[in-house]
Amino acid sequence: MINIKELKKHEPLYVIGHKNPDIDTAVSSSLLASILTYFGVEAYPSILDKNYDFDPYNKKMMDDCIVYKPKVIKTQEVSKYNFVVVDHNNPIQSVGEDATIVFGMDHHKNSNKIDNILISTLCCNSLFIYDYFKDSYPFSKEELYQIYMATLNDSAFFRASRYTSADKKILDTMGIHIDTEELFHKYFELTDLSSGMDNIIHKYNKVYEYNGIRFNTSLIKSNNKNQYLLEEYKKCLQKEDESILGVWQNFESKETFAFFWYKHKLQSWYYPYIASRSKDVMNDVVNYLESNN
Ligand SMILES: [Mn+2]
Questions:
Q1: Which of 73, 75, 158, 245 is least crowded, fewest Cβ atoms below 10 Å from its Cβ?
Q2: Considering 186, 213, 237, which residue would you say is the last residue of a domain?
Q3: Structural contact between residues 83 and 71, judged by C-beta atoms closer than 8 angstroms
Q4: Ligand 1 midpoint to CA 125 (Å)
Q5: pLDDT (tens digit, 9 = 90+) per residue, 2-41?
Q6: CA of 128 to the centre of ligand 1 (A)
């Protein structure tokens, strides 16, 4: 169990997710702040002012399930606060490496940059928080619904490879019965490619890091109609000065194409399913980096 007594020494705590928040980051930070408050620790969901730029593909679904009102912290005042991180575990994706982080809960590959962090293999961090506290915190109906929505979004409505039987098992205990295919048709959005490939590659990209090697990443959700743009995407990646990982998922043909532009060489991978950027693709990237360094 988490050490409440120890956390209390650092209050108030500011629970923060990754920049360009998606549903899981919004729900995770709000939820963990509420849980800590319930245990008597002063805590608030938070975000840095420079990062308050939503991932637009989640906005409608997010607005329909959560009133996300984080405390907005000025980036130059980060050193005044004690943070708890959720839905990421590398400080470069939020508060920066000099900030004080006292605790964290995440479901991505461990960067080993934060000492006191719990890492899960579940497909969604909100689901991990639910599983961890379900016997000690009375989740409201509204919170359960938010967790369900975050899980749907993080798993591409159960289509992504990171969604496993372990996730399903936990979801089944929540007592929520909704038509997820109906929600898929209501909320799922393909990447808008109309503003040009160069723009798209630089928009809402996440920085990844492995063993000190940093690279940008881009994720495209496509269909058969847009598949002809894959070659242009590949070309645009190769025009980058810095390293970049591009992931192209076709939700109609259920295929994934990944390209890693590193040291001016392009490495490609193909998956006959919807491969998760943070799981399957990153695994291959890590293996590639290990065999090439
Ligand atoms: Mn997540």
A1: 75
A2: 186
A3: no
A4: 5
A5: 899 999 999 999 999 998 899 999 999 999 999 999 999 9
A6: 10
Residue with tokens 């390209």: 259
Domain-embedded: residue 126: yes
pTM of this structure: 0.92
* List of E strands, 164-264: 206-210, 213-222, 244-250, 255-262
For residue 270, the enclosing domain spans 197-292
**Structural domains counted in the chain:** 2
Distance 156 CA to ligand 1 centre (A): 11
For residue 233, the CA-to-ligand 1 centroid distance in Å is 25
State the number of CA atoms in the 13 A half-sphere of 8 facing the CB: 8
Residue 201 placed within a domain: yes
How far CA 33 is from CA of 45, 70, 179, in Å, comes to 6, 10, 29
Do 70 and 210 lie in one domain? The reply is no
Please indicate, yes or no, whether residues 179 and 230 belong to a single structural domain of this protein: no
| C-alpha of residue 85 to centroid of ligand 1, in Å | 12
Establish if 191 belongs to a structural domain.
Answer: no
Q: How confident is the model at residue 56 (pLDDT cuts 50, 70, 90)?
A: low
**CA 264 to ligand 1 centroid distance, Å:** 30
| Radius of gyration for the alpha carbons in the chain, expressed in angstroms and rounded | 19
Which helix (DSSP H) or strand (DSSP E) does residue 46 occupy?
Answer: strand 43-48
Does 268 map to a domain? yes
Please give the distance, rounded to the nearest whole angstrom, from the Cα atom of residue 230 to the centre of ligand 1.
26
